[in-house]
Amino acid sequence: MKIVIAGLGIIGGSIAKALKKYTDHTVIGINRSRTPVEKALECGAIDEAGNIDSLRTADMLILGTYPDAAVSFVRDNAQYINKSCIVVDTCGIKSEICPKLSAAAAEYGFVFVGFHPMAGKEKNGFDASEADLFLGASSIIIPGNAPRDAVNTVASLTSKIGFGRVIFTTPEEHDRMIAFTSQLPHVLACAYVFSPQCPNHNGFSAGSYRDVSRVANINAELWSELFIENKQPLVNEIQTFIDNLTEIQSGIKKGDRKELAAILHRAKVIKEELGE
Amino acid sequence: MKIVIAGLGIIGGSIAKALKKYTDHTVIGINRSRTPVEKALECGAIDEAGNIDSLRTADMLILGTYPDAAVSFVRDNAQYINKSCIVVDTCGIKSEICPKLSAAAAEYGFVFVGFHPMAGKEKNGFDASEADLFLGASSIIIPGNAPRDAVNTVASLTSKIGFGRVIFTTPEEHDRMIAFTSQLPHVLACAYVFSPQCPNHNGFSAGSYRDVSRVANINAELWSELFIENKQPLVNEIQTFIDNLTEIQSGIKKGDRKELAAILHRAKVIKEELGE
Hints:
Two copies of one chain form a homodimer.
Chain A: E1 2-6, H1 10-22, E2 26-30, H2 35-42, E3 48-49, H3 52-57, E4 60-63, H4 67-77, E5 86-89, H5 98-108, E6 111-117, E7 138-142, H6 148-160, E8 165-168, H7 171-193, H8 207-213, H9 220-228, H10 231-254, H11 257-273
């Protein structure tokens, strides 16, 4: 296949590198600024720099940009996209994005398949990309109304570049789960380091501090977009969390050890039932 | 030195193993139940099983038990403890424990030094203990009114068994910091897995889920005691956290990207200023 990647940040760059490492597909890179394209050419992550013409003959177009930019890119270039092209996004939220891209696909005659690579780092940009970023990670695919063979093409491609498993779901289920598994931990990390004790933690901290605060080193521009475009599921998840936190806080205030131990034990049971 | 360890769980057991691995001191083990003592003898973590008589000639008595049990052990056995013995606790909270043990020390003529080894695992008991549990960890020491040479003896011993650095502090400062660095993350982990989404996370989760939920596999009996005995600092820390979480939640509800990005960016700055 001739695969165009638009947006060579950590995700687009890693997909490019993984495609070159694990497949024989031709990889073409497009980026708003020039530097990542040059770096990608230099290290062999892409075969060539692309342009609008590349879209006319692409078998697959992978959108490595932020969500809104992905929609804009497709809308601005829809008329140039090959009718037999499979367009694939990589956005961390789906309900806000997939319907728009499906509509563009229906209007212009190409195919759209939603995709969320469940991998990342605390660093961004092409420099942070790596061929093995996706090893063992979940490849979440939102088929929507795409033809089954296009969905299978995307799914098997993600398996080839290292993903450990493929999950098929809907935009709504995806967004509800991601609000819990990924967005909430980022919110918690930020709220955590806002404590007045944080700057003095050194010497008093071990693995727990490190783990909770890790993703507080956040890409504020990206995550504010992701949070707001997944507003309701995330606001709900935060509220559930506050309610649960308040229950534990009340147990501590009350000071009944057996009662508090019973609350905490519920957490242990949940983890054990999950085999974790 | 002749060092008696009372309580051969993960902490007491690991101290025993580390003492045998890194020093030439004689290590004597005492435990309420017999099995850990037998296991410790078998694997060479202790030189002999101890009893009340061992306390009469001990140079150091390390309390590896839960906080209240540490106080009870010392009160019950104070009359047998060698007058030149240094008694060292290993409790995760200090304001509730150190004054009681200092008082016992003053009354019976031995020395007490507070100690919190900042290391642990999600498993408990002697079977989870290991000689290198403390490698690079913080050794937090609460000198209280102990003589300087006793404090130095404890500090240098912790360095010898692998601790990466020694921090001297007060019970109050210790408890305020630990509420933030260690207790709050355990509370967050429990509140987190209480979400109705949790049992279905598989396939939608990556490092963030794993990191936040890790310590939810909690020893409910121990931590309910630690939480309640550090009630005020922890309740305050949880409240600060809820307030910070509510600020972020409001920013998401409001939906102003720049404003939300500015809030999140503060977290990034805090992490960067800490060099993390």
